[in-house]
């Protein structure tokens, strides 16, 4: 009996050490009495005995890490977290050098002696043991050496992912604020331009026009269960145009952020490309282009290819979330409307961008000392009538109606411009053309001004409070335009949302110079804060990273088969609620990217609660019951406990493989 009690205490001590290391935010869930008990047990086992809960999360001496790794390697019980305490090696993987060549299992210098012996790699790695924290410090020092470019960092991170996936994600989690612009926009855009020449190791799946009729069978070539898929046809990559199969870089980067930002398991994500050709003449002439060297397929044939892909996903992984990424304007909205009720999906360029913009506007209201309802007092000029621009306008329109305006009153708050100028009721909109149905009500409400007048004339007539850019036209917001916005408003809302940085409608410096630093600024790409006359204008970044990880995680955890406008609005409202008073006083309208995992927790919980309210839960009432008993705080704890955290786990062979034991 005494031995059994001692074993139970050992297991409890080991579990709390692991919990505090992987999820420090849950420390408040443990009472001081329990912590005292665990501290005593840990000391008797030879573990370091922290004097406070904070030390459990922060102190990780090398010797202790070595002992902890050895201890967990010998665990045989099947507690709730057992599947997270070990890395079970696929039965097809052999002992020895094959372990080190597999990025999923390789730890470099992070293998314990017991693991080296068990996996047949003793002598194949240097003898000294390093913790994952020490490995991160070394790599980060190399990445941040003076003179290293964004592309150098991108290539270095790709090389790291090729050899040690866990370390890659740990570095990304620890330095998400600095590395998000490398893994995704703006650096990934530069990488996509030359993706064929940078190609080293296949990632994800390529579904080409040559594979039509075989998509369903091809899905089974991917061995893992999948929770999230990002798919693109590469027809409109970040405002860089048609990059064909090079769009794979976008799908890969987006899913890396799902893992780092929302704790989605790396093994359960799948980047995909629908390669139907390209109209990019430079790529077609490139002898090393790895996509189909043919003109892009369009029309009904293209839509049939998308349909086959979606059906194949449903057959293989019926509960997976599909995120559509960087489809051209003429296809993006029709695809979303066609499949929104057919599969759990959303379009990040349309819905994700709209949510983050609305969240920024709510944040701007807070910065101006207004409630969210203050949005009804705003007048919006939107430059860009494509899928992103109209998605933003439609979503803000819904928010205006939600806060009390009639639909017609809300339409009258918008001035939409395309490359021909202001769109009014006099504009000839051809029935059946892409995006016409979304644009028509905005055009019909604009009868007070001539069709086609330019942006400067619109600003003079409309006297807007918010200027939004989704045009991909660099420098569209000129000094004259920005100066006039500053004359009309104490704190004009300026949002050049186009990506990458080279396509932004204006820079932060231009906005600060023209408005004397008074603007509430937000861009789609990163800029530095700017100070003018003792006033600092915060260069907020309206990054979709605030939205899609938490939205995806919440949708999956609640088991919804549909992402509603209500769930999207819940996500938008959750984001500015994470801002602190000090940040609001600085006119920051988004939280720091460094806090993205906590933002994702809030967003996921808000999305899940809204799904329950709309009766969209498919977890047998589990989530509704949790909310009724523990409230939103309990739901957030559940979300945190479901998130993957990159740390080294003992590697063992699959039971029955004949190559080792668990």
Compile the SSE list and pairings:
Layout: H1 2-22, H2 32-44, H3 53-58, H4 62-73, H5 82-85, E1 87-89, H6 97-101, H7 113-119, H8 132-143, H9 150-163, H10 165-174, H11 176-183, H12 187-193, H13 195-198, E2 205-208, H14 215-218, E3 228-232, H15 248-262, E4 269-275, H16 281-285, H17 299-316, E5 321-324, H18 329-339, E6 345-347, H19 348-367, E7 380-383, H20 387-402, H21 407-411, E8 414-418, E9 421-422, H22 436-444, H23 455-462, E10 466-469, H24 479-488, E11 493-496, H25 508-515, E12 520-523, E13 530-532, E14 535-537, E15 539-541, H26 548-558, H27 565-574, H28 581-585, H29 596-613, H30 622-641, E16 651-653
Parallel strand pairs: 1-16, 2-4, 3-4, 3-5, 5-6, 7-8, 7-10, 10-11, 11-12, 12-15
Antiparallel strand pairs: 8-9, 13-14
Helix pairs in contact: 1-2, 9-10, 9-11, 10-15, 12-15, 15-26, 19-20, 19-27, 23-24, 24-25, 26-29, 27-29, 29-30
Please tell me about this protein's structure.
With 662 residues, the chain is of the alpha/beta class. The protein has 30 helices and 16 strands. The strands form four sheets. A seven-stranded mixed beta sheet has the order 9-8-7-10-11-12-15, with helices on both faces. The protein has a five-stranded parallel beta sheet with strand order 2-4-3-5-6, with helices on both faces. α26 crosses α29. The longest helix is centred in the N-terminal third of the chain and has 21 residues, at 2-22. The chain is globular and about 80 Å long. Residues 20-83 have low confidence and may be disordered.
